[in-house]
Amino acid sequence: MKVDGGDIVKLMQQCTIRIDYDKLEYNSIFKDIGLDSLDFANLLLAVEEKYEITIPDEEVDRLSSVEAIVEFLDES
Q: HSE on the CB side for 33, CA within 13 Å?
């Protein structure tokens, strides 16, 4: 599956995740930029729905940035 960081950022915006998108870099760690656990859960649910996948529980901790989500989706 071919996904880029811009796709994930758009999805974050659609989920109304409130962060400073001007400062967001694809390798920014979500916790470091103020993404709370509820927003993170909403983002992962949105990723699952949009890309019609299930994210295994053991993979969740690794999905700590836009870049990590893109890598995970590229491997799927």
A: 19
If you average pLDDT over residues 3-16, what whole number do you get? 94
Taking the CA atoms of 74, 3, 56 and 34 in sequence, report the sign of the dihedral they define: positive
**For residue 25, what are the contacts with CB-CB under 8 A and spacing of at least 6?**
none
Total domains present in the chain: 1
Which range has the worst mean pLDDT, 1-5, 62-66, 72-76? Answer: 1-5
Q: Which amino acid is at 4?
A: D
CATH number at residue 31: 1.10.1200.10
- Global pTM value: 0.92
Q: Which domain holds residue 34?
A: 5-67
Instruction: With beta carbons less than 8 A apart as the criterion, state whether 50 and 15 touch.
Output: no
CB half-sphere exposure, 69, CA atoms < 13 A: 29
Q: Is residue 51 part of a domain?
A: yes
